[in-house]
Amino acid sequence: MPDDPLIHDPDAGIDRLLAIMRALRDPERGCPWDIEQDFASIAPYTIEEAHEVADAIQRQAWDELEGELGDLLLQAVYHAQMADEAGLFDFSAVVHNISDKMVARHPHVFGSESRDKSAEQQTRDWEAIKATERARAAQGGALDGVAISLPALLRAAKLQKRAARVGFDWPGTADVLDKIIEEAGELVQAQASEDPDHIEEEYGDLLFVMVNLGRHLNLDPESALRRANAKFSRRFGAVEARLAERGKTPAQSDLAEMDALWDAAKAEEKVRQ
Questions:
Q1: Residue 117 has what pLDDT?
Q2: Which residues touch 245 (CB under 8 Å, ≥6 apart)?
Q3: Angle between the N-to-C axes of helices 62-85 and 91-105, in degrees from 0 to 180, rounded to the nearest 10
Q4: Per-residue confidence at 133, pLDDT binned at 50, 70, 90?
Q5: Which residues are within 8 A (CB) of 170 and not within 5 positions of it... i.e. 6 or more apart?
Q6: Helix ranges, 86-195 (H)
Q7: CATH number, domain 5-104, options 3.30.930.10, 1.10.10.10, 1.10.287.1080, 3.30.70.330
Q8: pLDDT computed for residue 139 by the predictor
Q9: Distance between CA 125 and CA 133 in Å, rounded?
Q10: What is the Cα–Cα distance from 184 to 205, expressed in whole angstroms?
């Protein structure tokens, strides 16, 4: 199998990648590490590669995106190869499944429905089709099918969106802001109790409502937090650079000095904007 001519054919496309994965998993001649893996051990790498794709897009690192997409594609091929070995399905079944799904969910492109509708209406239609698919799969609850392994912020947003679709939602942004104030007060009370489990619970409730505020503001919480992370990293890097000019590291400084340098970096950013 490692001698499969497809492996050395640069023009063989996806067939080459499938042949490479078969060779890596070959019980006798494959890679020992790859042979030992299973769905559970590979799943974290799949999530990591998806995040690296998102990171390249966020940074507009288009020269990196090609490689990151390849890494993510490899994950799909890896899982499909393991499924094939277990007699569950193969890569062609994966392709068949997603192709059928895309055709079924786009009747305005591949069927007789009119394309003359807004993106918002198309989104509602998409969700209606997905609801029908869930019903056929015996997923009767509004929240059924929201993957537990999703990043917590993303899963919170999806859960709230599903609940809102059946009418369980605050009427407007002001109501969500009031709830944030309420949850913040409950977190303060929990701190006074000095019960770690209670504190974590109330902190989680506050985060959950903050996600809901993002939905009411038409903001993606994951994107907003990535942007905040990037801003913090950028400004703290500026603080470190200014301290280095003074012959210092953050550990040799104090909060007052670093806070002043932070404010200076923030002011410079605003001037550049």
A1: 74
A2: none
A3: 120
A4: low
A5: 176, 179, 212, 216
A6: 91-105, 107-110, 119-136, 152-165, 173-193
A7: 1.10.287.1080
A8: 58
A9: 12
A10: 9
**Residue 170 · residue 176 · CB < 8 Å:** yes
Domain spans, the chain:
5-104, 141-219, 223-272
Residue-wise over 233-251: b if at least 16 C-beta within 10 A, else e? eebeebbbebbeeeeeeee
Q: Which two tokens stand for residue 199?
A: 């504190």
Arithmetic mean of pLDDT, 95-109: 91
Distance CA 167, CA 165 (A): 6
For 194-220, where are the alpha helices, taking DSSP H only?
196-216
Site of tokens 């977190």: 187
Phi, psi of 79 (to 5 degrees): -65, -40
CB 205 within 8 A of CB 185: no
What pTM value is reported for the model? 0.64
| pLDDT tens sequence across 164-175 | 988 999 999 999
Task: Please give the CATH topology (third level) of the domain spanning 141-219.
Answer: Helix Hairpins (1.10.287)
Average pLDDT over residues 242-264: 96
Token pair 């509708």 in the structure block, residue: 117
